[in-house]
Amino acid sequence: MSAALFSRAFHRAVLHGVLLITSLATVFPLMWMITAAFTPNDLITARAIRLWPEEPTLANFAEAASRHPIWTWLWNSILTATLITVGKLVLAVPAGFAFGRMSFPGRQTLFWFVIATMSFPTVLAIIPTYIAVVKLQAFDTYGAMIVPSIPYIGFYVFYMRQAFRSLPSSMFEAARMDGAGLWRQFTEIGIPNVLPAIAALSVISFMGAWNIYLWGQLVLEDRFKKTLTTGVAAFADLEGADRVWGPLMATSLLSVVPVLLIFLLAQRFIVEALAPGADER
Hints:
Blueprint: H1 3-37, H2 41-44, H3 59-67, H4 70-101, H5 107-116, H6 126-135, H7 142-146, H8 154-165, H9 169-177, H10 182-193, H11 195-210, H12 214-219, H13 228-239, H14 245-265, H15 267-280
Helix pairs in contact: 1-14, 3-14, 4-8, 4-11, 5-8, 9-10, 11-14, 11-15, 13-14
């Protein structure tokens, strides 16, 4: 083997080794959480760390439910994340079509204004939004959690604009010649051809809405209105130094599994949404 080939093989082996170690370090907390969720609570810290439960049990889920309303938190997370996702898509999809397929005065200026909102730190809007929620007497309601989270759609509008612009103009021209108005072009031609892009955005939006933490901590006070993300933090805080790791990890697992399943189920749509854009570029 020549020196060049040996050097190349050595560097590749080192790179793969680093990637493997990094991957294991990333996956380890998730594996330990899964193991602890199905391990009897008194065995979690009594024995050395293991990546599989020796005596699998579902008792931790029952114990967690007896201490805190975790199933209510799960439903609240599903409800709020779904409504936020639907709200974002209802605004972003028509806006993307308008910017991508319609001509009107100020279109480019307005589009760049929408793009500029992506650079605005959302944390700066928390205090004025919180004051508005309190003055509208919406504090500690699902509306306070859902409605202020919907308008942050700069990326969604941009993505849908690009998806609509990637469609052949001949389709829309043929539709106009057949007498189709903008609404029919949007619903019968545009949307069916960008469904993978909509599915990809739905997953991104749902995952982002599911993981909302700071805003939920501010506007949701009733323990029965909390989401899993804020509920897990409340679980840990309320247990204090005597926290029970098994039920806590069971609750944490509940907060991970739904998003992971949605991502795995929608993987095909995400690939379809990204592949055409990559080919055209």
